[in-house]
Amino acid sequence: MLIFSLISHLLTVSVVPVLTATHSAPGHNSVNGETSAAAQQEELERKWDSEWGFSGISTFAHLPHVKCLTHPEERYDIAIVGAPFDTAVSYRPGARFGPRAIRAASARQTSFRGFNPRAGLNPYRSWAKILDCGDIPITPFDNALALTQMSEAFLELGQRVGAYKRPKTGLDEDVPGERKPKLITLGGDHSIALPALRALKEIYGQPIAVLHFDAHLDTWHPAKYPSAWSSEQSAFNHGSMFWLAGQEGLIRNGSSVHGGLRTRLSGDGWDDFEADQEQGWMRIAADEIDDLSPKGVIDSIMGRIGTDIPLYLSVDIDVLDSGLAPGTGTPEPGGWTSRELIRILRGVQDLNIVGADIVEVAPSYDGAGEQTALAAAQVVFEILTSLIRRGILDADAEVQITRATEHERRKDEL
User: Fold this and answer.
1) DSSP three-state, residue 291
2) 390 contacts 119 by C-beta, under 8 angstroms
3) Among residues 91, 68, 112, which one has the least CA distance to residue 331?
4) Are the beta carbons of 377 and 109 closer than 8 angstroms?
5) 243, 372, 293, 257 alpha-carbon torsion, rounded to 10°
6) pLDDT tier at 21, thresholds 50, 70, 90
7) What does the pLDDT look like over 58-87, one tens digit per residue?
8) Does the CA dihedral 241-247-248-252 come out positive or negative?
9) What would the DSSP string read from start to end of 161-179?
């Protein structure tokens, strides 16, 4: 009995601490458990949450991917959106694969090496929440339906509440969502600009100015494509979408600019230019850069548009010389270099850009080095940088206006 009592005593002494230890283990105490889990998550992210340019799922610049169209609760300040549509082209198809090619070409853009020296900022580590919102699922079988799909998608994505919150000034509360989100669309052929402008007109309640870099006018009356066979839907194509937008009152007359033109005209005279002028556009030909220099082109654009009115920036990759950017549907020799285009984009950074696109990248005609898609990805980077920079300047202005308003209110109270 004595031996049995000693064994029972020893078992009791041994088991109690074990049970005590079990009840105090991490995870059973909510505070310690949450701290431990957070620390563990932080360590996992430190070790594994980074990507090289050649690794990871292909989103633009390794940005987080969300199917924003099916997640209305998702907030963002800038969205990269694919519009894989190319059934409104007049020559070579293939731009439906443009969004995929541009994303792949953006792989060397990362947040850890994204600082833009010309602007003094890293667009991927600044105030804005930037997402890759994936592609709009556009039908390739029915252009009327495709136009409806794009119009609804751009409106849905563009009228959301932004993620940005105005910082506290000590004078008022945070005001969430003061800024409307901005969309940068990866085309797709150039006809996608029409549904984008439809959405922007509704969101901003006014016609939108357009800065259009392209080899071609894209303000042609649909009848300029001669055929004995026509329909209402055949009027919607990648050479007439700005004419259609003008007819719908979407474009601000007298404030829009073409840059990089070198197109042949219809017929035997200047009718295309005259019609373009009647629609309120200013034209800068590609070879004018030789006399004006990039700075002269920039000054012409800024003098025409200014820095206040809402602007849609539309970049057809065929504005570049076909020897430098062969991967496009309607290539034209004699275009700008990528360096010249980038210099001009940097020079117009003070424009009030409310939406943008890069279109007509058709990777099946590109070179082995993907030079067309690389140029397009760089164009997006420059536009992103300008949007971020403008946002910083606007935030500073908002704070100054708020302080001035509060100062006047207090004076009135006294």
Assistant:
1) helix
2) no
3) 91
4) yes
5) 10
6) very low
7) 999 999 999 999 999 999 999 999 999 999
8) positive
9) PPS-BPPP-SSS---BT-S
The dihedral formed by the CA atoms of 276, 281, 287 and 291, expressed in degrees to the nearest 10: 140
Pair of tokens at residue 306:
């200014």
pLDDT tens string 117-156: 999 999 999 999 999 999 999 999 999 999 999 999 999 9
If phi > 0 it is left, if psi is from -120 to 50 it is alpha, else beta; for residue 127 that is alpha
Tokens of 23: 């009840």
3-state secondary structure 378-394: HHHHHHHHHHHHHHHHH
Per-residue pLDDT averaged across 89-114, rounded? 96
Say how far apart CA 3 and CA 261 lie, in whole Å: 103
Query: Pick from 334, 293, 382, 362: which is nearest to 87 by CA?
Result: 362
In Å, how far are 95, 226, 266, 286, 311 from 269, measured between CA atoms? 31, 16, 7, 20, 31
| ∠ CA 143-147-150, rounded to 5° | 135
Q: Which two tokens stand for residue 53?
A: 């340019």
